[in-house]
Fold this sequence. Notes:
two-stranded antiparallel ribbon, Rossmann fold, globular
Amino acid sequence: MPENALADLARAVAAAGYSFVTPTPATHARVNARPGNAWARDLRDVLGWSRPFLPEILPPGLFALMQAAGILRAHGPGWCSALRLSTLDGLMFFHSAYPTNAADAVYFGPDTYRFARAIQAALEHRQGPVLRVVDIGCGAGPGAILAARLRPEAEVIAVDINPAALALTRVNAALAGTSVSACISDLLADIPGEFDLIVSNPPYLVDQAARAYRHGGGPLGAELSLRIVATACERLAPGGTLLLYTGAVMVDGQDPFHAAAIAIVKAAGLAWTYEEIDPDVFGEELTDGPYGNADRIAAVVLAVTRTDHNTR
Length: 312
């Protein structure tokens, strides 16, 4: 997909007054299943709800821009878009169309909006300088892009193992007018140095298809989140903070992720806070085998800081 053509498409869509807040996959499925929603009637149906469409329902010139961007896929007598376009805090973000079944799908959804609010709150209250930032598992790039917008003086790096995610991060960063370097890396394996801010919204579910954007690994999906905690504890600069937004599976009233993550942080001698910001997300997952004993899945934010009195 030509990145310049994608940017041209997004600007034209924005000029048409487009906005779309992406819901959970379960909500997306329910809304699209309603009578009359099988085919798109307007631009939001095409680029938001991922419905098949006929070219004549689009504003003039947009079909040609979609062709140039290489995102059209044939669908019966019409077409569908391979990408969605969501809005967050006045910015446009390309990500994968619904349903996100491909192994290299790029996710964006309700978790992204909560993650964004956590980053904004953290940077509003931060006292020290932020000169170097990394977004681990950047996906469509919202973490890196919001950090770059709020701290334009910082060097901001976005890393992911998915080349498709990095391509969309570059486009989305350009649309936001921010400077973000997008690099292939498994966690921070190929990225040297220390960071004033590490942000991450990693996959935290158990996905039977092991899709990279969704599968967190381990029996309850927490493996990748714990790896990020351990890596960040080694790579925070003095005064630096890890802001990890993830999911925690509650079992018999207990939080196994909290116990494991805080053990890592305490062993490193760092300061931390832990907040449950939504007690019940992705409830539909509880019918699957891996969660047979789970009470619920909560959205949590773990902040880990290397304060002045911490020692390595």
